[in-house]
Amino acid sequence: MLNVVEAAPRQTLWRGLTRRAVGPTGRRLEPYAFLSPTLVILLILMLYPIGAVIRYSVMNNVILEKAPVFVGVANYVGILTSPDFWVAVRNTSFFTAVSVLAHLVLGMVFALLLNNSLLGPLAKPVFRALFILPWLFTVAVIAVLWRLLLNPNGVINYVLQGAGLMDSKVEWLANPSIALYAVTFINIWSGYPFYMMSLLAGLQGISSDLYEAARVDGAGGLQRFTHITIPQLRPIIVSIALLDVIFTTQQFALIWLTTGGGPINVTEMLSTFTYKLAFNQYEFSVASASAVIIFVLSMVLAFFYVRSQRMAD
Amino acid sequence: MQAGLLFALLAGALFAAFPVFWMGTSSFKTNPEIFELPPRVITEHFSFDAYWSILSNPVEVRFFVNSYIVALSVTVLTLVVAIQAGYAFSRFQFPFKRTLNIVIVSVQAVPPITLLIPYFGLIVSLGLYNTYPALILTYMVFTLSYAIIMMTGYFNTLPRELDEAVKVDGGGPMMALWRILVPLSVPGLVSVGIYTFMIAWNEYLFALTLTRTEDMRTVPIGIQLLMGQHSYRWNEMMAMSILGSLPVLVLFLVFQRYFIGGLTTGAVKN
After folding, report:
1. ipTM of this model?
2. With an 8 Å Cβ cutoff, are B9 and A118 in contact?
3. pTM of the model
4. DSSP-assigned letters across all residues of chain A
């Protein structure tokens, strides 16, 4: 299902948008009439807010005061010299890099398992449904569920202790030296099905002739994987990994509902850091500067994403 | 080889499904039983009490009502707007088409946290703070770009001769779109609709910031509130989580039956 509602269109429909239309050219205003609701929404809810947040970021006391004053790059200097910001940058980088890599590996393993020809027509949909399960739950549910599982008195501690892997109960989400790994693990669990479904659809699209030819040439299983499977899936891998980087760097709810960025600030991400600045400390100007920095980073990533989609054309 | 495959499949299923199973089984336990050691896989005191206490509490029920109102409104509005935009992209050439195209694709990457601060100011000054329209409007920004991309792709698969036939009969593009293309696009509309509904149903950050009172909160916030206020009635939190996931689970089951197969492979090879 995922590759219909999420994965596939992201990869293929970009091409759909750019495909040359051979419609009537005389009626110039007609397309704009059809596009006007979209344009109005983009103008009010995208262009204006981005302009506003950039304006806020060079002013002081925005939102709270009627007459904010221009302060130039002071808010940016404040952010970039704040050690907390760099902690958030480091945490976000770790969280994103590990999540994306693990998503890719797990997604590939699960997709290969499901694509195995030994799997019968009955077993395949069952395992596909089981493997996709984490994707069907909203972040709030995932957060509360993992808080139960990772509770010091919870089932995971019990099993690990019973298996002799740990001597004492672990406070997964409250121990400063473990919490970042714990939230990263939860994010890995919740995110791999997106890769799995995209890669599975990709695998099913690879012509069996390619594998047949390789077999005739005496290529082993590993060689077929590295010389056929990976190159064939490359466009899909690049585009889903880029999307995942974009979305993982923006992850807010999972962190907010499991650790809130704590203990201390070991799981503080750019999103939670910015949110706290704005809505806990009411430092809207400084928060805006932080939000603009995140925006610029995301747009750089989006540039690569758009380019990768174009190259696939 | 066979044994290895079976082992891998079962290990994968355990990894993916055990947490979900645990959520289910915990929702039927009594609260003291939740942390009983050794943990019980199947409860001794099976009961629906946790579900009843959620469903009989008007505050909790309101979360669900709010989520349905917001998610369904977003879905309908997104479809109406995206159908028109998708039609324009699919059937017309116009100046700035390429630029607009890139803008719509890039919008997906704009971080919600960046928009949140100006939205807060904007929504308050429009007098929409703590209302349904505040959520419906802001959610549409994220559902729309995606829906437009999908609708354009779907319309591109429909032959242009259909539009021409309407023109021969004296109908305009409006007629071609709503009378001919839209009825033929039902499978595409359903998948766009489901995806839109899911985004809206799951949204957390805007719901957290743009609403304030309990009677305006949605399910994801409701789960969080439950976590804070009765510190740790875990069985109720699990029951609420299950109830909050039901619409998406049901959509998945229905959707899988209808669409896996033809459409998935078709969409990728498109």
Report:
1. 0.90
2. no
3. 0.90
4. -HIIIIIHHHHHHHHHHHSPP---SS-SSHHHHHHHHHHHHHIIIIIHHHHHHHHHHTEESTTTSSS-EE-TTHHHHHHHT-HHHHHHHHHHHHHHHHHHHHHHHHHHHHHHHHH-TTS-TTHHHHHHHHHHGGGGS-HHHHHHHHHHHTSTTSHHHHHHHHTTS-SS---TTT-TTTHHHHHHHHHHHHHHHHHHHHHHHHHHHS-HHHHHHHHHTT--HHHHIIIIIHHHHHHHHHHHHHHHHHHHHT--HHHHHHTTT-STTTT--HHHHHHHHHHTS--HHHHHHHHHHHHHHHHHHHHHHHHHHHHT-
